[in-house]
Known about the structure:
The complex is a heterodimer of chains A (520) and B (366).
Chain A: H1 6-21, H2 26-45, H3 49-66, H4 73-91, H5 95-119, H6 124-162, H7 180-195, H8 205-213, H9 226-229, H10 244-270, H11 277-308, H12 326-332, H13 335-349, H14 356-374, H15 378-397, H16 399-405, H17 410-437, H18 440-449, H19 460-479, H20 490-506
Helix pairs in contact in A: 1-2, 2-8, 3-4, 3-6, 3-7, 3-8, 4-5, 6-7, 10-11, 10-19, 10-20, 11-17, 13-14, 14-15, 15-17
Chain B: H1 2-33, E1 43-45, E2 51-53, E3 58-62, E4 67-71, E5 92-97, H2 100-103, H3 113-123, E6 128-132, H4 140-149, E7 158-163, H5 166-174, E8 177-179, E9 185-187, H6 196-203, H7 206-214, H8 216-241, H9 251-280, E10 284-289, E11 292-293, E12 299-300, H10 308-314, E13 316-317, H11 320-326, H12 344-361
Parallel strand pairs in B: 5-6, 5-7, 7-10, 10-13
Antiparallel strand pairs in B: 1-2, 3-4, 8-9, 11-12
Amino acid sequence: MLFNSYIFAVFFGIFLVLYWLLRRRRVPQTALILLGSYFFYGWWDERFLILIIISTVTDYVVMLGLDNRRLSLRRGLAFSAYLVIVSIALMIPRWSATAWALWFVVAYVAVAWCIYPCLFRLSEGARRKALLIYILCVDLGVLGVFKYFNFFADSFAKGAAALGWNVDAVTLNIVLPVGISFYTFQTIGFCIDVYRRKTLPPKDFVQFSAYVAFFPQLVAGPIERGGHLLPQFSVPHSPTLAGGWLFLWGLYKKIVIADNLAPFVQSVFSNPSGASSAELIAAVVAFAFQIYCDFSGYSDMARGIARMLGFDILLNFNLPYLARTPSEFWARWHISLSTWLRDYLYVSLGGNRRGALLTYRNLMITMLLGGLWHGAAWTFILWGAFHGAILVVYRKLGVDAWLERRQGHAAIRRLQDVVLTGIMFCLVCAGWLLFRAGDMHTVASFVRGMNGPLSLEPFRDPLFYIAPLLAFQALQLCTKNLEPLRVLPGFIRLNIQLFILCSLLLLASSTPQEFIYFAF
Amino acid sequence: MDRMGHVAGKKWLFWIMVPFYALLFGEIFVRLLTPVAVIPRYVTGAAYGVRVGMPNMKFWQTTSEARVQIRTNSRGIRADREYSYSKPPGTCRIVVFGDSLLVGYEVNLEDSFVYLLEKKLGAAGYRCEVINLAVSGFGTAEMLVTLREEGLKYHPDVVLFSSHVTDLDDNVRSSLYTIDDHGKLLRKNAVFLPGIKMSDELSRYWIYRWVAENSQLYSSMREHAAFFLKAQLLRYNKRKQVAPDSTGGTEREAGDRQAAGFQERLNLLLLEEARQVSESSQSRFCVLEIPFNQTRTTFVRMLPDYDVQTREALHIFNPLGSFEAAAAPTRKLFLEKGHGHLSPQGNEVLAAFFFSNLVATGWLHR
């Protein structure tokens, strides 16, 4: 179910009415969010709900264990029965093809029953470590099978062939479950926080289930933190219209800007050898704005919907193309992922505490895995390596440190900022070329083709859609507020709102595109 | 207290003004950023269950290429004169059925196909009336109903059906006819009058007519809504009338494939029925294909290539060659800024082609 579909409008309309009816009752309201979220996800494919439910139950039990709380026999039986009953219910519609999944769940529950008592014979430290390793294996194992198995099997076969060994690639006919990378990282982050004793484990299973499956951010983030979102389920909420404009602004970015840029980008990237150098550059720049508007549009819609339900979810984008350095860029782009990678990977690897060389290594590993998170393809890994490399180079040059301590006239500092922002935007665009190309042959075609005469003509159509975004961002800068409509005078606000509404009604693309980050 | 009342009054005034300001903003937005053609279509319901032009109307269609006035007579026919049902002695009659292309939308009456055809026939010495029963949005099914219920009353010597790619969808959308289990044409519904009640009601008010003829915002919204509703109706009727085949692909692909075959068979049966109805009233029947323009100089036939026997029986005239011969990069045979109707040059090519072919049949006498 896409936020920009009619079916979502119907779903959300009914949901809001029920939500309003339950506005003073916390428990039923949380249950409604949980059921609504499962319905929202199941609309795409109900079979894959079982993955979310297994992950939820396992993470919940493990987090209790990390807090030295042992599950009672009655609760253990209840969780086991819950998993089996839900599996049967979800597999019934396609029983002949999916019955094996039920036996898998039964086997998984049986193994868990065998392992669980053994864990509590270990010392506290060993048990906590074992539980953390167990949950990482389960969560990353599911992610690995569904997202990366075919990629690694295929790459292994190709690598072996290059060495002269003939190995047949064993690939599986696997569908990538929507949002698996997002909710897996969300639950892993929560477990690590509990392990590090930064946060307490969830008290209420229904609340935790609603936290994992919270539909506004379930399929494409932001990747929430337990300490931020979960406590919000402890109080009843009243629906408000406060998030309406944020939702519409996100919808505008998606269906007016991103979807209208998509055909041009697609036409050039599908045949780069037939495009002029100006068209190639325009396509890369257009893709930079397409992916930004596509993803940040989704995030804004998610935040808008959550706000309408009375929840606050994390900011995911903060004017990323105004970044002056790579570290600033990652503090502004997909903030929930970059902070996740920083807190749970970079810091775990040692961060910048063990000298320059190890810091560079940690940066490279973090960005490589960040690239791989986006998708199972070598171009994504290359994209991650590229960003890792520019992070290392900027760190080596000390640009961030220089920016902090520089002095001089404000106008000169501003000019320096403009130059650095321009350089950074060009570097980000080079990264997007790797990201979008799909294979190295396309990248080579682009690089070869860009050395020709330039003209502004191919930029005209993309600029038609990008210009209002740039104007809005200028407004965000001037008002120093990411939601400038809140602080602008009424008449200006009215005109911006009318512009957004008119654009949604009259300029929306007639060929809707799927959200790019759904593929991750 | 007075001051508070004053502020409250100002707020009310603001909220009353907002809708008007929003409409004005929208109109300026459309005109500046996404200008559209203003092509109102005044149709009403005929007693026999399908649409007919609204009688005694005079309205403007405006695009960046043309501004034309459409005038209808007391029977809703685009003409500046009345036609009696009885045929004047010594006069032959051609009754034309089609959609907005043959009504002559976006061109002046003097540049329309029907007018040009009558002029050419007159110049060649034929005393002939060409009566235009084309209605915007018509498919073959509605043409057939109009022929039975209205067209034959004019005692035509020649019945001309235009055939355009949109007919295939229009026939399914109207659901007036379907194909029964034995492969025969079956009348399914008696009435197809989409949105007519509302449009009849609205058209009574001059303010609505003024908005329809002058507002680009209204035109844009109406076209968006009509496009969406027509697509939904078509999808619904396709699903209802056509079962997916079993030759693979997704359910939707299978449905579309099957629907394409169904639509072609239905169109052929409708044309065959129209021929029989015409011939049973001693009228000659023929079909004039209208090609689809891909560019200014390339055109394609979008209708199926029927076998020779069918083509000869139905007297199908295909002007593709004439269009290709007349085309040039600097010459527009179809209008480009509006709804893609035939330009004055396009109408001229079509009329000249049909005139020469009609004369060659020997159906008319001087």
